Structure formats: structure tokens, C-alpha cells
Amino acid sequence: MKYVASAIIQAGTELGWVMVPEGKGRIAGTLDENRHRAVVDIRYNLHDYSILYRDSRNLKNSGYHIHHDYNRWITKLNEHIRKESENWAHWASSLPRKERVNGKLEGQAA
User: Fold this and answer.
1) Which side of the chain, N or C, has fewer Cβ within a 10 Å radius?
2) Is the dihedral of CA 69, 2, 54, 63 positive or negative?
């Protein structure tokens, strides 16, 4: 799962997010833009991930509505995570078969 985490961290970092691993299958992401701040939890496993709202500042979160910038930032983060994940999957599939065991790279945690 470290490769999945690396793809998520790389994607967020490229967009200016501060990405902090918080244990197995969890990364916290924080984006500060001008006076605004968005904080998300990203939960992941080998097959998928979720980006969940944690907190915000100056984004007018009412519980039902939030500033349109938040949705734009999350959409871009999601797109970049998908791109990084695809790059990783393509790279891993190009490795010689002996370096893969049961569809996973040797040394990759289950």
C-alpha cells in the first residue's frame, strides 16, 4: 500500500496540498489558499480511495453548502490522484513477471 500512498501524496503535493500520513490507509491533506483553508481525510486501500471533508476555514460551510472553491479543489485533487494512480499501475504492469508476485510487487504490503 505504500505505492498507493505515494501516488496520493505526490498528487496532492503537486497541487500545493500538505499531505501527512496518519497511519495505515489514511492521509490528511491541507490546502491553504489566501484566507481559505480546506482539510480532508483521504482513506485508501489497494483498490480505491475516498476524499472526505474534515475541516475548513472561511469556506462558508453550513453543513449543506460550502464555498465553490472547495469543490473545485477536491475535483482537481481527485483528478491528480487518478492520474498518479494510473501512472503507477502502468509502470507496475511493465515490470518483468518475476518482479511481481500474485499481481503485487515483491515487498508490497497486502
Assistant:
1) C
2) positive
Closest CA to 42 of 57, 22, 59, 56: 22
Classify residue 50 by burial, with Cβ atoms within 10 Å: 0-12, 13-18, 19+: exposed
Comparing 97 with 71, the larger pLDDT belongs to 71
Q: What is the pLDDT of residues 32-53, one digit of tens each?
A: 999 999 999 999 988 889 999 9
The pTM score is: 0.78
- DSSP E strands: which ranges in 8-80? 18-21, 26-33, 36-44, 49-57
Task: Round to whole Å and give the CA distance between 61 and 65.
Answer: 6
Residues in contact with 65: Cβ distance below 8 Å, sequence separation at least 6, in sequence order:
none
CATH of 2-101, one of 3.40.50, 1.10.4030, 3.40.1130, 3.30.310: 3.30.310
